[in-house]
Amino acid sequence: MKRKLFIVFLALWVLLIFFFSSQSYSEQNLTPYLTILLGDSNLDKIFSSIQFTYAGREISVANLGIVHFIEFFIRKAAHLFVFFVLGSLTWLVSTRIWKSKRIAAIVAAFFVFLYACLDEIHQRYTNGRSPLVEDVLLDTCGGILGIVTCIIIFRMKKK
Questions:
Q1: Residue-wise pLDDT tens for the chain (159 aa)?
Q2: CA 87 to chain centre
Q3: HSE (side-chain half, CA atoms, 13 Å) at 26
């Protein structure tokens, strides 16, 4: 019974990711809300010293403005969270199929990586979206973090 339930949750989560990837950037644009929320905040001064490159693009307050800078981090946190859950659900399903927890973890990590790749390929064909290798890596890290978290929690429950 639990295995079927986890498979249903996994399938729904995969469909949710597909749905979000099918949306154009303009459909997911957070900048109007962030503009209102941030208003006249001093966050630009606080974060002005942060600068790095992501996918060949400079990420900084000076280059993007505070609203797009904050939106970048929200979007990347969403990648981590969504694939954290995907990794967790995949591990839960895998442990019900394979007796070896190690094999279940490897299969789950491979599935997360494969789905991250497919997700970015899907985004290539979505208006206003672009596939990024960096996002595949970020998604895979989120998934592996979910897998590792599940392993730790289940080991703690055994003791």
A1: 777 899 999 999 999 999 999 999 889 999 999 999 988 888 999 999 999 999 999 999 999 999 999 999 999 999 999 999 999 999 999 999 999 999 999 999 999 999 999 999 999 999 889 899 999 999 999 999 999 999 999 999 987
A2: 10
A3: 3
Question: pTM for this one?
Answer: 0.93
Q: Where are the domains of the chain?
A: 2-22+29-158
Work out the angle at residue 84's Cα, subtended by the Cα atoms of residues 20 and 69, and round it to the nearest 5 degrees: 60
8 A C-beta contact, residue 90 and residue 112: yes
Which segments of the chain does DSSP mark as H helices, in order? 2-22, 25-28, 31-38, 43-46, 61-64, 66-97, 101-124, 133-158
> Is 73:135 a contact under the CB 8 Å cutoff?
no
